[in-house]
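hi! just following up on the protien thing from before. the input was this:
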Amino acid sequence: MKNYGFQVVDNTDLEVFENKIKQLLEDGWELHGNLISFPDETESGTVKSVRYIQAMKKDLTERQRGGFRIGQSID
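and the predicted 3d structure came back as:
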């Protein structure tokens, strides 16, 4: 059975948001679902900032390694 970790990344700074997503992808996380964005702050009908949200998942199941283990004795 697989064991997944989930987390949600959200930010109103697009550059910070993108950097966090890139870091997680490099660490083995995967995108889960669609990117969501919506006006976070408005003033007199004008959007002042946008909130970006992305769910992420990672398979945390322990992997069994095959092959030989060098330097370990078998008793």
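The mean pLDDT is 88.
The radius of gyration is 20 Å.
cheers
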